[in-house]
Q: What sequence folds into this?
């Protein structure tokens, strides 16, 4: 899978379902555990210690895809910046931001497609969000943030070490970082000599001088390809608090 995959119609359909689809569309059957549904929502609701953050914080979502976590963050944050390298994903996020809905062809069996509408949930604040097309390793930011989400981004950048090294400078002291990854390394995205294993001491060595680890847990998700093919993933989630400078 190359990075160009994230500019394709199948990728867009997969991620719109993951972010905005009904539970019945996200999961293989009604008998499946619902704890794997609504991954972008659970990142925001379950991932941060909101009571330890300032009122109305600012947020950065690196690798925001089609934007659901950004919209969920907008319920509590006065300003949200969502960054992604895929122009296709961010065009869709902006259309949802501007109009509240989007229509996309979704794969069925074989080459069959069905048009499906996706809508913003009630109660979000789209006007608080700024979506930017950019590289998580290089795009400059004029400000620091109170919280930072990097969901399943680590194994999709060419230099994960460089990503980890730039994170401290993006957060205020006391700010929180939620990092999730299934560690599904592919040479199409990351050279083999840059791969980091789950629980790698290298990850800890890069973050611990600047952060305190608050929590480590599993945050499952299901990615639908078509009605009879689903990817069940078990990303590791870690929550960190930025130390005082």
A:
């Amino acid at each position: 899978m190359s990075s160009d995959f994230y500019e394709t119609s199948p990728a867009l359909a997969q991620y719109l379902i993951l972010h905005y689809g009904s539970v019945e569309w996200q999961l293989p059957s009604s008998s499946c555990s619902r704890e794997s549904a609504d991954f972008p929502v659970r990142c925001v609701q379950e991932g941060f210690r909101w009571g330890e953050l300032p009122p109305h914080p600012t947020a950065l979502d690196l690798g925001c895809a089609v934007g659901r976590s950004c919209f969920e963050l907008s319920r509590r944050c006065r300003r949200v910046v969502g960054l992604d390298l895929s122009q296709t994903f961010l065009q869709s996020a902006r259309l949802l931001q501007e109009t509240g809905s989007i229509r996309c062809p979704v794969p069925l069996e074989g080459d069959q497609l069905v048009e499906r509408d996706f809508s913003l949930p009630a109660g979000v604040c789209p006007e608080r969000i700024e979506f930017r097309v950019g590289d998580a390793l290089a795009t400059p930011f004029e400000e620091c943030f109170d919280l930072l989400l990097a969901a399943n981004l680590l194994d999709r950048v060419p230099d994960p070490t460089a990503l980890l090294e730039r994170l401290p400078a993006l957060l205020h002291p006391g700010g929180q970082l939620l990092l999730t990854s299934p560690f599904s390394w592919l040479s199409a995205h990351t050279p083999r000599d840059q791969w980091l294993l789950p629980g790698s001491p290298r990850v800890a060595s890069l973050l611990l001088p600047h952060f305190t680890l608050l929590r480590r847990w599993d945050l499952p998700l299901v990615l639908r390809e078509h009605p009879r093919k689903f990817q069940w993933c078990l990303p590791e989630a870690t929550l960190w608090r930025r130390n005082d400078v």
About this structure: The chain has one domain: 3-242. The two ends are 40 Å apart (CA to CA). Helices lie at 9-20, 23-26, 39-47, 68-73, 87-99, 160-166, 201-207. The mean pLDDT is 93.
